[in-house]
Structure formats: structure tokens, C-alpha cells
């Protein structure tokens, strides 16, 4: 009850909500006013009319992201509607600004539903594509499956700015970085690993597709939805689930985890039992990512034989937190005016996180981490060098994350031909992003 009251008070304290607009230019004199608005504003308007690319030079578009939702799949709350989803989108805007100095605004859209109250993909696509003149990127958020797949796919085709559905790709990027380092510690290869997956929604399917791009084999996945294992003999599977339909006798999650090297959870609290863990391959990796209550708690999984465990929670080691991804990804994409966030850029973000976890932590960063995570600091976590079973991925408050992810993403954007601006000195760029965030 106290938590609920604290959260409500936090949001209702005046000014209500969590974001506001702050001018970047002075407006304190008659001359300032004439420059900010009429008659001076006509000059950049005419410059953009003559050269559409000048919009990046004369407006805030280059550092402005729209966080767009229809409220049909909000956090663990489900289809609560666009108005009820607005606090989440405002929260995302806070994280963009706090971690990457990116300005953003939540846009929750109504009248984009079918007769069943679910996302009408065509209506949502038509609404979002009209936003392109005002924003440098689109972060899709909390849009129900399976419509979310079509919405992102079509918008990426139609828009000339990055479109990124964080619910699909954020968890995939972060968790792959953790898996990559976990497999390195255990001496395993991703192409040899068997995966058991609980949850066949946007996050589960997109994570598995991403791992396949990174080298995992599709035939090594057994995925479960609320009705059991996705099998080829089922007639109730949508297009995305069919890609993971297996020719198998397995029917239940217990069947799926038997002999698996890696468990991934995007589903329901407590669905993975210690008995199931004991049937997995030697030294299994377990990522129960349901929030706030995971599919199995880390201590229980470790006691049952798990080698490495990661969750979505900040109070356990190896937190799979999307804030490790989207701020740096958009920072890099915006800084090179990328037209897309492609697979190469996503893999680059994962690799950046994996690299950081192995790198020594500088004294100034260690001091900040100790303030943010006092219990971990007391255990000496930040004094050690390299990855360990309780540290396969950096912490969200590691100030190196956004600059390094931005660097790798920008490099990949340039290398794959989707950048409109070149960066010649990436060491200098990474340092400049670090200063920009520190100086906020």
C-alpha cells in the first residue's frame, strides 16, 4: 500500500507527470521574441522549404524521438488503453533524457483499434507515418502482438527515419549480450545450444529470431505459449509462431526444458520449477525475465543447478534491462542521421555491452556504481576485472554504456550505408557523448 501511495504522489506532485518542455534559446527580450517567432522564424521556414535537409540544421528534429503506443500491451498490465499507458511513455522519455540527453515525448494514440479493441495495424501505421517531419526517430512501445510485427515492418519501409520497437528488440539485444558472455564463461557455443522458451509474444519471438541471426540454429528452439509447445501439428498458430513450430513429441514446458542449455522466460511467475531445472543440460543458463515476479527466482534456480541466472529485476545480478540498449542505440542513430536501425546496428549494440562487461572499470565509474549499487559494491563486484557468473552484463548506471553503445551503433550505421553523416574519429565521438551526458 505504501508503494502505491508513493508512486501516485510521485506522479501527481505539481507539475503533474514526469516531463516538461524547456526552451534551448533565450526569450527574454523583444529581439529574442522576434527571432524565436514572428518575423524571424520565417527565415528557417523558407530555408527548409528551399532545402528539406536543412530541417536538421534549424529544428530540434535531430535530437527528438517520439515514443508511440496504443496502450494494448502495457508492461505487465496488458490492454489498458492509450490514456492509461501515458505514464509509461513519459517514463521512457525520462530515461531517454537521463541516460542519453535525447529529447522525446510520449504519443498515445486512440481510434487505432479493431472491433475487438486490439491494434488495427493499418490504422496505427497510417497515424505514425505522418509524424516523420517532426521527429528524428520513432520508438514504438507497448503495442500488442501479433500486430506489432506488421506495424514496425511497414513503418520501416515507409519512413526515412529509424523505427524501433523496443519490446521486440530491446530485450533481444541486452539478453544476447548476456548470453554471449555467459557462453564464453561456460565454454559453450551458441550454435550447439538448445533453447527452451516460455512465452511466444513479441519479446520471446524477437529474441529468438535475433539469436538465430547471431548463430543459433532454429531447429534447436522449443517455444511454448499458453497452450504448450509450438508444434507443426497445431492449427492455431499465427505467422510468427509458425516459424518456431517444431516436429516434436514435446507438449509441455517441462518437456521443452529437458536437455536444454538455455531457458528464456517471457511469460508467467513461477512456471519453471526446480525439478525442471534439474532435467536441463549441464551448467544451464536461465534467464527468467517476467516482471516483477520471474518464472523462477535466482536463488532457487542456482540451488537446482543453474550456472548463470539473469532476470529483469535490479535487485538480482545480471539484470536484463532495456535501458542498457535504447538510449545508446538512438544516440548513435541520431548522431549519424541514420535512416534505419538495422540488424547490424542491433548486433553492434549487443557486442558493445559484452565488451564493456569484460573491460576494467575506471575509478570514477566505480565510484558512481558504488553509489547506485551499494550492496554490490560492498561485495567487491566493481573492484574485479572481467566477466563472472554474477556479472555477464554491465549495470544500467554504468556511465560508459551509452557512449560505447552509441559508438558501435554509429560505426555499424556508416558501414551498412544507412548513415547520412560520417564520423572520422570514433574515439573522439565516444568521448564527446560521454561529456555530453556528464554535463547535462
Number of strands: 10
Uncertain ranges = none
Q: What is the CA-CA span between the terminal residues?
A: 35 Å
The helix content is 40-55%
Q: Which overall shape is indicated by the principal axes computed on the Cα atoms? A: globular
Class of secondary structure makeup:
alpha/beta
What summary fits the major beta sheet?
6 strands, mixed
Cα radius of gyration in angstroms: 22 Å
Oligomer: single chain
Average residue pLDDT: 96
Strand order, sheet with most strands = 7-6-5-8-9-10
Q: What is the chain-wise order of helices and strands?
A: HHHHEHEHEHEHEHEEHHEHEHEHHHHHH
Fold and architecture overview:
The two termini are 35 Å apart. Helices cover 43% and strands 9% of the residues. The longest helix has 21 residues, at 166-186. The strands form two sheets. It has a six-stranded mixed beta sheet. A four-stranded parallel beta sheet has the order 2-1-3-4, sandwiched between helices. Helix 8 packs across helix 15 (343-358). Strand 5 (195-198), helix 9 (202-213) and strand 6 form a beta-alpha-beta unit. The model has no long low-confidence stretch (mean pLDDT 96). With 440 residues, the protein is an alpha/beta fold. The radius of gyration is 22 Å and the shape is globular.
Amino acid at each position: 500500500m505504501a508503494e502505491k501511495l508513493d508512486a501516485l504522489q510521485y506522479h501527481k506532485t505539481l507539475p503533474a507527470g514526469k516531463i516538461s518542455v524547456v526552451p534551448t534559446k533565450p526569450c527574454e527580450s523583444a529581439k529574442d521574441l522576434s527571432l524565436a517567432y514572428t518575423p524571424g522564424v520565417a527565415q528557417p521556414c523558407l530555408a527548409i522549404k528551399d532545402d528539406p535537409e536543412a530541417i536538421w540544421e534549424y529544428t530540434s528534429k535531430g535530437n527528438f524521438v517520439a515514443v508511440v503506443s496504443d496502450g494494448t500491451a502495457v508492461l505487465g498490465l496488458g490492454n489498458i488503453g492509450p490514456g492509461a499507458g501515458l505514464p509509461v511513455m513519459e517514463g521512457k522519455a525520462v530515461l531517454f533524457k537521463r541516460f542519453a540527453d535525447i529529447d522525446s515525448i510520449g504519443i498515445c494514440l486512440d481510434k487505432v483499434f479493431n472491433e475487438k479493441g486490439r491494434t488495427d495495424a493499418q490504422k496505427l501505421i497510417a497515424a505514425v507515418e505522418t509524424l516523420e517531419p517532426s521527429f528524428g526517430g520513432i520508438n514504438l512501445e507497448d503495442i500488442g502482438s501479433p500486430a506489432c510485427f506488421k506495424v514496425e515492418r511497414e513503418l520501416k519501409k515507409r519512413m526515412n527515419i529509424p523505427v524501433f520497437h523496443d519490446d521486440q528488440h530491446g530485450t533481444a539485444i541486452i539478453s544476447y549480450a548476456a548470453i554471449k558472455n555467459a557462453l564464453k564463461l561456460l565454454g559453450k557455443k551458441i550454435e550447439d545450444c538448445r533453447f527452451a522458451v516460455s512465452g511466444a509474444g513479441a519479446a520471446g519471438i524477437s529474441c529468438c529470431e535475433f539469436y538465430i541471426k547471431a548463430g543459433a540454429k532454429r531447429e534447436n528452439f522449443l517455444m511454448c505459449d499458453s497452450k504448450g509447445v509450438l508444434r507443426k501439428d497445431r492449427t492455431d498458430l499465427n505467422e510468427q509462431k509458425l516459424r518456431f513450430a517444431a516436429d516434436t513429441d514435446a507438449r509441455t514446458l517441462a518437456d521443452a526444458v529437458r536437455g536444454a542449455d538455455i531457458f528464456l522466460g517471457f511469460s508467467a511467475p513461477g512456471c519453471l520449477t526446480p525439478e525442471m531445472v534439474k532435467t536441463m543440460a549441464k551448467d544451464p543458463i536461465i534467464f527468467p525475465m517476467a516482471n516483477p515476479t520471474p518464472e523462477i527466482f535466482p536463488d532457487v534456480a542456482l540451488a537446482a543447478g543453474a550456472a548463470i541466472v539473469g532476470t529483469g529485476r535490479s535487485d538480482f545480478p545480471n539484470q536484463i534491462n532495456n535501458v542498457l540498449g535504447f538510449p545508446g542505440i538512438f544516440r548513435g542513430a541520431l548522431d549519424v542521421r541514420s535512416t534505419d536501425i538495422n540488424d547490424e546496428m542491433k548486433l553492434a549494440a549487443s557486442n558493445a555491452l559484452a565488451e564493456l562487461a569484460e573491460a576494467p572499470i575506471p575509478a570514477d565509474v566505480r565510484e558512481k556504481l558504488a553509489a547506485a549499487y551499494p550492496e554490490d559494491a560492498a561485495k567487491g563486484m566493481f573492484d574485479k576485472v572481467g566477466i563472472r557468473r554474477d556479472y555477464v552484463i554491465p549495470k544500467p548506471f554504468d556511465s560508459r554504456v551509452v557512449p560505447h553503445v552509441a559508438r558501435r551503433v554509429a560505426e555499424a550505421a556508416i558501414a551498412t550505408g544507412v548513415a547520412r553523416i560520417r564520423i572520422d574519429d570514433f574515439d573522439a565521438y565516444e568521448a564527446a557523448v560521454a561529456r555530453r551526458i556528464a554535463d547535462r
